[in-house]
Backbone:
């Protein structure tokens, strides 16, 4: 018989909990981590990814609605709030569908009498209820109230999701509230059971069944209140002495342990651990055991810092007529000084070290005894060396430590990471004007692609924005993701802005085109999540039928408005069809609102020449920074990151224009366009 091997798999929640690894989170982290949920269950502790932003300003009104989705009927509305130090509970019951409007009106009258009401509910069912009732029973006098209630409503489930991990197997209200200590009078109470009770009551009209449903609704409101109060406590701080709440940021990696410094409780353990270090063992223990290792240690080669001089330049000059300090005229020579300049020479055969020593006379004033010289400032490192170093860091994405090590071992130059960083900073300072010219040209153009991504500066979260067109790329540093950065950069921009659906771009006053690839991927993801949602399939099919002919025209004729305007009637028909549909599922209703909100920004490219329907230019530029970010890590300072962004902007602009970044740095030209016009096609090199 053949041999069978059982692959290692995860079969239990406990096994899954051990796979959780604490990691750095950038920006607004909103992805549920199943391993962290399993860890919360194993340890029976609440795990919070903070800080938790949760407030209930105004008067919290806890809302719970019972309904029959198959018949699109809402038959019980529960409100729970406090007034005058007392807890008030209101339940509005509908015997039949004809009573639905009556209980809705009674509910609104109660809410209108509350000072600054703010609805607090659990899940999206109540949000859908508010919107549906506002459409079914329009009341001009209550429209403002309903809109305000919907806008200010707090969904507890959205607050919990991917932020608070209770030791429960789901984030349902029953599981979370039961963990917090709440108990329902009927142990088997649930939404499905309540639906069965309602059907049975409609046939039998038993008073006890009606009372069970009202009690169930009241208890759901009370359970939501308990969850909200606990979340409010967690958002402020962990209760003193609480052992059931864990801040995920304080978790340490359990297994496998990462390399790094270990904190020992006992000093004896630290002494023993220090004796086990590799260099300590090799120099003090193994060297005494193995004679060959002792000889190797004594004869270990040392780095030579005496660099041969390739050329000596003797600077001869006239003796100065006057002292620079006291203006006396009696000046004598006082020996000679020298300055060594390190540089490289590049050729088709490789890179060669080139060291020049400049020798120049020193003078002394016989009256004030001050010494001085007339030798002009000469940088310690030549332009070729600076350009080649920056080329390795930015274009080849080598670490500064690696570049310094190669300088020491290959060229024998006394280089360090700090020296390489100073070279990078000096070139970035020289390129600052070039960078600003690139950014100004982008803003003055007719098209801008924009995107943003996270970064880490000295262990803290930051952001990098990119603004690009077809030939220029500029990266901008920002301490946060607020739209102020984009607004400031694009303040004078009058063309078309292509971006994703981040709401911050909506505040920029210019014509906009949203990336249809982002929208299509979102629809596709929701279709995978809800494969039996016919409403989503209908929306996706209609959107694809509209977009596919447009893309075929783009592929055939390019981005020319005279060939694309013919698709405008199909787009208008798509929006008209969408507005006539009365979708019931939350996700479908959300996409209808999304299409309506961005109606004027989805198909802008049909009326403008040269405007693409996607944001690939910005995303491609962001990938260049992400690759560089992986090399930089999170130890760079704000100034250091800005220097990286200046150089990366010049590098990516050179690539877009088809010229070599290294050749441009070597040329010392004032702009990329000047470099191209001077060298023509000869400036293009293949790397």
Residues:
């Amino acid at each position: 018989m053949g041999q069978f091997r059982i692959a290692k798999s995860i079969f239990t929640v406990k096994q899954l909990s051990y796979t959780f690894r604490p990691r750095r989170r950038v920006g607004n982290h909103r992805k549920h981590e199943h391993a962290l949920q399993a860890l919360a269950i194993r340890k029976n502790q609440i795990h919070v990814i903070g800080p938790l932003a949760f407030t209930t300003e105004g008067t919290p009104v806890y809302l719970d609605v019972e309904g029959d989705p198959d018949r699109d009927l809402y038959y019980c509305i529960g409100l729970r709030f406090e007034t005058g130090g007392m807890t008030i509970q209101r339940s509005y019951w509908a015997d039949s569908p004809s009573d639905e409007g009556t209980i809705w009106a009674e509910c609104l009258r109660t809410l209108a009498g509350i000072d600054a009401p703010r609805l607090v509910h659990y899940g999206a069912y109540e949000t859908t209820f508010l919107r549906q009732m506002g459409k079914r029973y329009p009341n001009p006098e209550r429209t403002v109230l309903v809109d305000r209630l919907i806008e200010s409503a707090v969904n507890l489930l959205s607050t919990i999701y991917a932020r608070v991990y209770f030791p429960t197997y789901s984030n349902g209200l029953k599981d979370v509230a039961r963990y917090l200590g709440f108990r329902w009078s009927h142990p088997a109470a649930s939404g499905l059971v309540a639906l069965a009770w309602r059907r049975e009551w409609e046939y039998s009209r038993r008073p006890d069944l009606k009372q069970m449903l009202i009690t169930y609704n009241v208890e759901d409101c009370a359970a939501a209140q308990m969850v909200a109060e606990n979340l409010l406590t967690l958002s402020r701080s962990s209760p003193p002495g609480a052992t059931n709440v864990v801040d995920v940021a304080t978790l340490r990696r359990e297994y496998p342990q990462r390399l790094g410094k270990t904190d020992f409780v006992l000093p004896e353990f630290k002494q023993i651990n220090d004796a086990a270090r590799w260099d300590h063992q090799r120099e003090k223990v193994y060297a005494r055991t193995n004679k060959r290792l002792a000889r190797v240690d004594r004869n270990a080669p040392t780095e030579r810092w005496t660099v041969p001089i390739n050329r000596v330049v003797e600077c001869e000059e006239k003796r100065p007529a006057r002292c620079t300090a006291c203006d006396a005229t009696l000046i004598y020579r006082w020996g000679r000084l020298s300055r060594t300049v390190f540089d490289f020479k590049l050729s088709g055969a490789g890179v060669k070290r080139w060291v020049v020593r400049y020798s120049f006379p020193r003078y002394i004033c016989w009256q004030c005894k001050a010494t001085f010289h007339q030798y002009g400032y000469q940088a310690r490192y030549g332009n070729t060396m600076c350009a080649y170093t920056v080329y390795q860091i930015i274009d080849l994405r080598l670490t500064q430590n690696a570049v310094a090590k190669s300088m020491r071992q290959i060229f024998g130059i006394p280089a360090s990471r700090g020296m390489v960083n100073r070279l990078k900073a000096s070139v970035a300072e020289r390129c600052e004007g070039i960078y600003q010219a690139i950014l100004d040209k982008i803003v003055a153009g007719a098209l801008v692609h924009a995107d943003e991504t996270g970064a880490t500066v000295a262990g803290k979260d930051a952001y990098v924005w990119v603004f690009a067109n077809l030939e220029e790329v500029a990266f901008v540093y920002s301490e946060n993701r607020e739209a102020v950065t984009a607004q400031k950069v694009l303040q004078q921009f009058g063309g078309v802005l292509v971006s994703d659906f981040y709401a911050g771009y909506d505040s920029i006053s210019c014509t906009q085109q949203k990336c249809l690839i982002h929208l299509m991927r979102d629809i596709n993801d929701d279709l995978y999540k809800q494969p039996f949602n016919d409403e989503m399939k209908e929306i996706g099919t209609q959107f694809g039928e509209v977009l596919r002919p447009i893309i075929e025209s783009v592929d055939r004729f390019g981005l020319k408005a005279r060939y694309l305007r013919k698709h405008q009637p199909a787009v208008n028909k798509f929006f008209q069809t969408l507005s006539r549909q009365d979708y019931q599922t939350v996700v479908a209703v959300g996409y209808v609102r999304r299409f309506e909100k961005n109606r004027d920004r989805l198909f802008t490219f049909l009326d403008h020449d040269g405007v693409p329907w996607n944001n690939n230019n910005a995303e491609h530029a962001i990938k260049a920074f992400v690759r560089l970010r992986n090399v930089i890590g999170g130890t760079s300072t704000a100034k250091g990151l800005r220097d990286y962004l200046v150089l990366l902007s010049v590098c990516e602009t050179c690539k877009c224009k088809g010229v070599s970044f290294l050749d441009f740095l070597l040329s010392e030209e004032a702009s990329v366009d000047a470099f191209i016009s001077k060298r023509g096609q000869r400036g293009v090199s293949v790397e």
